[in-house]
Amino acid sequence: MSLATDKLDDKPTLYKQIRRDIETRILTGEWPPGHRIPFEHQLMACYRCSRMTVNKALSELAQADLIERRRRAGSFVRRPQHLSAVLKIADIRAEITALGRSYGYQLVQCARRAASAADRARLGVRKAGKVIAITCRHSADNVPFALEDRLIDLEAVPEAAHADFAAEPPGSWLLHHVPWTEAEHTISAVVADDRTADALGIAVGAPCLVIDRYTWRSARTLTAVRLHYPGESHRLVARFKGG
Amino acid sequence: MSLATDKLDDKPTLYKQIRRDIETRILTGEWPPGHRIPFEHQLMACYRCSRMTVNKALSELAQADLIERRRRAGSFVRRPQHLSAVLKIADIRAEITALGRSYGYQLVQCARRAASAADRARLGVRKAGKVIAITCRHSADNVPFALEDRLIDLEAVPEAAHADFAAEPPGSWLLHHVPWTEAEHTISAVVADDRTADALGIAVGAPCLVIDRYTWRSARTLTAVRLHYPGESHRLVARFKGG
DNA sequence: TTGACTTATATGTCTAGACATATAATCGTG
DNA sequence: CACGATTATATGTCTAGACATATAAGTCAA
After folding, report:
1. Do A208 and B207 touch (CB under 8 A)?
2. What angle separates helix A40-47 from helix A14-27, to the nearest 10 degrees?
3. Residues A125, A215: one domain?
4. Is residue A238 very low, low, confident or very high in pLDDT (cuts 50, 70, 90)?
5. Contact flag, residue A36 CB and nucleic strand D, below 7 A
6. In chain A, N or C terminus with fewer CB closer than 10 Å?
7. Full residue range of the structural domain in which residue B193 is found
8. End-to-end alpha-carbon separation of chain A, Å?
9. B150 and B46, same structural domain?
10. Predicted ipTM?
11. C-beta atoms of B28 and A63 within 8 A
12. How many domains would you assign to chain A?
């Protein structure tokens, strides 16, 4: 279980030095959340450099959400984002092939229909419209990997009408054809019902990891998908830095 | 399920305009992974601005991992990071109080002992040494919220010997007293065994979300913790931006 | 063909200024 | 005291330069 030393080997430059100094103080707790970072002009004097140099350091810390900058007031250490969570799982096919396993895909069902009330609730739309409902299965080395139930809003993604979801998984198709701006994952655990157990080749009552993913482009829901993973075998691994 | 329009309302400035233009082309796929972004001097001419302005735009895109910059070669669209995952859950007490619920804590067991072979394997240490093993329970509004099984390496965190884990949850204590540099979460699903079901007040065989968290400081494991959440009630929500 | 050397060039960092702008703090007035 | 107007100030953005440096590409000799 070795740990990568992220980027400690790159040449130290002044702005990185400044950024690092501040970062260290934040991570060690020497500067707790809410603490005001020295003003830019103070750091200029301290490090004997121009304002643009300290500004670059502070801007990067702000982009990384470690500090918050407020006009006239100064820069402050942000509270660590409790319970804030970020999870990215873009494409199951890519995930499986990246693991060096062979990817398999079976389309179980694909229907184009007028949105039901339940569909509209799931997609967060009011008006009537058409949707595509897809059920499919992903497998790795011929072992079921995940069961996918997806809804695509055809009003938001009209191109999807011409996609061949028997040939290409909807997730991959969407990733390559439809730009998105924001997404949300919700992770929970359930026990397998008949249908899920059957599709994943596990026992009824076996644990499953469930991921619900909603994808938007500029406040418009594009697609909603629910994925069932066999819970014992599949794991989501998340590694990160920070304080 | 409304969606915050992240930062579309802020004043458009030139470097943001440039960043946005490039971002859009990447997200729409107009510039696929590997595509070379125009050189800085081309963008300077195109937008009629100084090099620092385009540099700021490109630097931010690079920091966000949307592009990769290579000296002499130029800037290139990066492959989307499939299966990359990030998850942050710092402190259960903070999580619960942030939800506006009352936090409760019960220490079930706390033992200081020489590290067993299993302990050493879990912490990734070779040498013999002392550890603290803690089992405790977190509750929200007097309903069991999570069961925690934690191991703290006393060689790495000697201060922990003086902490009172009956009064303060170990996660909170560690967060406030011990700086860390890197962590890893693994999420999986299981069904509750006797002990877990009993502690969480759920049925044996009910689904549970399991989070294993390892925390390091400079390649040294500080603590390993396993959390069981009642799977039906607890959800991890992850929201993020990007392509 | 291959390896070593040179050169051109795009990015990396930095400066010493400038004006814009949001807003905390102060001041003044009813 | 409450509230609106003013002011001071820290950050936000931008410029027109500069030199450093890694490296792709070209050059030349073995």
Report:
1. yes
2. 120
3. yes
4. low
5. no
6. N
7. 92-230
8. 21
9. no
10. 0.66
11. no
12. 2
